[in-house]
Amino acid sequence: MAKQLNEKNSVFIFDTTLRDGEQVPGCQLNTIEKIQVAQSLESLGVDIIEAGFPISSPGDFNSVIEISKSVTWTIICALTRAIEKDIDIAAESLQYAKRKRIHTGIGTSPYHIKYKFNSTQDEILERAVASVKYAKKYVEDIEFYCEDAGRTDNVYLARIVEAVIKAGAKVVNIPDTTGYCLPEEYGAKIKFLMDNVKGIQNVILSTHCHNDLGMATANTISGIINGARQVEVTINGIGERAGNTSLEEVVMIIKSHKELNIGTNINTKHIYPISRMISSLMNMPVQPNKAIVGRNAFAHSSGIHQDGILKNRENYEIIDPKDIGIDNNIIALTARSGRAALKYRLNILGIELSQKKLDDIYEEFLKLADYKKNINDDDILMLAGKDRTESNR
Ligand code: KIV
Ligand code: ZN
């Protein structure tokens, strides 16, 4: 059971891997796989799982039903447009959820109002209020999203946020749908709402940032600093186009920067295993230099860095890889590695050598590394004249 978060010093983690993340072409999961992901997200400690957009397909509807049955304490959320039929279907799909939320909303930017809805600000506001009131007949926990809030004028945004709060929304989501905002601009938007909306202290403001300009994480952190207390994120930052804010980045920033004085319910030791799971189920490789979960995120390859790390990890590491569930060795042996790294790896393999023998093997190692790029344990054993049965690994 998750601890109850105190909203002032904690941020709710709302995972949308199974909804916004799953919209990526080629990443679709079947219901069994979605259940597996949802259960892992629950073990990870996320507070809310956005399980799908039930009106979009019978498969999505069914997945929300099955995920609701298979998860115990995490809130299950279903997405809708500000349309009664969507809300009816979402409510039906959530019937087995122990804790449930409907996430409804509408586009609020001038682009959406004019080109998507051919409407006016006043009409959109009316539709927003009506959707919240309608959803309220099914569940207490209603989240409202102002789609493209990133490009919505702050004064109009404040009007609409105030109106949906009055109608009963408990969480208001401020998406930077196109990933356009600068961190300062996004933070100022959250602050403007915190300072100008009546009733804001009774609800939670949520961030939902896309990564089109590579600023999703920075914008999310800026949102938190300015008062948002829920973040919408995905594992490995997967999502439409350049993706959503990555869960692991935000959680580890919060954990590393103690001065933020913010907590989450996340058990960070589950981060790496779930990252691998999503990558493999969705057939979506993680870029090697991806922060926190990329293959090279903790792989030190230059001799100077390896020597420094072996003397004291903190010389070059701000996160202990064990904190995110990486247990094995992270010293990459390449042509730039020094003797210290080779000796360290040999010791892990149970091989102790005299300085003279180490020097000899190091010469051979450099020749091999020049040609092979990455040296694995079998190569090391071969250089040391041993085989697997003689090593302790
Ligand atoms: O990016 C976005 O605006 C969304 C909303 C539907 C929440 O995903
Ligand atoms: Zn989105």
UniProtKB/TrEMBL annotation:
The keyword Cytoplasm applies. Its EC number is 2.3.3.13. The keyword Amino-acid biosynthesis applies. Mn(2+) binds at D20, H208, H210, N244. Homodimer. It catalyses: 3-methyl-2-oxobutanoate + acetyl-CoA + H2O = (2S)-2-isopropylmalate + CoA + H(+). Pathway: Amino-acid biosynthesis; L-leucine biosynthesis; L-leucine from 3-methyl-2-oxobutanoate: step 1/4. It is an enzyme of class 2 (transferase). GO terms for biological process: L-leucine biosynthetic process. Residues 11-272 form the Pyruvate carboxyltransferase domain. Keywords: Amino-acid biosynthesis, Branched-chain amino acid biosynthesis, Cytoplasm, Leucine biosynthesis, Manganese, Metal-binding, Transferase. Catalyzes the condensation of the acetyl group of acetyl-CoA with 3-methyl-2-oxobutanoate (2-ketoisovalerate) to form 3-carboxy-3-hydroxy-4-methylpentanoate (2-isopropylmalate). GO terms for molecular function: 2-isopropylmalate synthase activity; acetyl-CoA C-acetyltransferase activity; manganese ion binding. This is 2-isopropylmalate synthase. Signal peptide: none annotated. Its cofactor is Mn(2+). Belongs to the alpha-IPM synthase/homocitrate synthase family. LeuA type 1 subfamily. GO terms for cellular component: cytoplasm.
